[in-house]
Design a protein that fits this description.
D-Maltodextrin-Binding Protein, domain 2; globular; 375 residues; 2 domains; alpha+beta; two-stranded parallel ribbon
Amino acid sequence: MTRSRFLALAASTFLVVGMAACAPPEKSDSGNQTGSGVNAREATSAEDFGGMDALVEAAKAEGELNVIALPPDWANYGEIINAFSEKYGIKVNSAQPDANSQDEINAANQQKGRSTAPDVFDLGQAIALANTAMFAPYKVATFDEIPEQFKDPDGTWVNDYGGYMSIGYDSAKVPEITGVNDLLKPEFAGKVALNGDPTTASAAANGVLMAAISNGGSVDDIAPGVDFFRRLNDAGNFLPVDPTPATIEAGQTPVVIDWDYLNSAQTATIPTWKVFVPSDALVGGYYFQAINKDGPHPAAARLWQEFLYSDEGQNLYLKGMARPVRAEAMADAGTVDRAAFDALPAVDGAPIIPTDEQSTKNAEFLGANWASAVS
């Protein structure tokens, strides 16, 4: 749950590289020809392999997939990875689970040409859109069911899952929370944690945006959000600890500002844990999925995408309390996991939808002002 991410695209209605420097070089492209004669690195759909069965065969021949920055307790990625591996008999190498988006890009650049380089990315908005030249366009079989605002027209990147900013809290340790400014009360002394550093982490940055909107700011003015955390820190309520399931269960971080799917997951183990999503500051976000065009396992990377955007993969995100990008289409088709869908936290209000320009501007403001606010 401590995965550190940069700003993500807002929702609608719904590695530090530690790999060995002596890693073996990547295999040549000579073994990456598809059944139809197309190089696997250039395949833009399963049809380029000769169909889904041929893609599966090519991916199994590669035998491995490298992922990075996917904590098992984040959006149910632990189960997603296991399900993919068991279904196709492909070994998944998961590197640096708690790395951030920039670490993913750094790993791809530093490990380029090696068998340890990441095959796929799961990125926040600012980092994703700044590095699209590194991505391989690919359209999954369900591409047409993904709303246009959540994908690049050529499939260079596609949003995969998202949620809303929330405040999770142990109701046995703190009073009921009905608004963001409740956190300034004396009862919350030393109890309020933010998931990450907002200069590098999506959850934290969007938490500041949520606070800004609750205090008269907007997506174009997050200064009130930084000021809120300054006041929270001055009051002694801000707890500079990155929350994890372990810190929550131990009572070390009884109040956590984070995505609703991460906070909601705690209700399974802590009966008194509640999740509040402010209707007056409904801030949402999706992450970006992309293929590393220079990854060592191009067929497995494409099969991974097909799995993530299939009904099975999307329902596994949903099981982790994340809101899959195909949720609406699946609900219409009757293929959504209805029990999991109905278990999502209730939200009310108009969602906040920052543009890329707004997100970039906010990131710059946080970079210049955050440290002094909470030091």
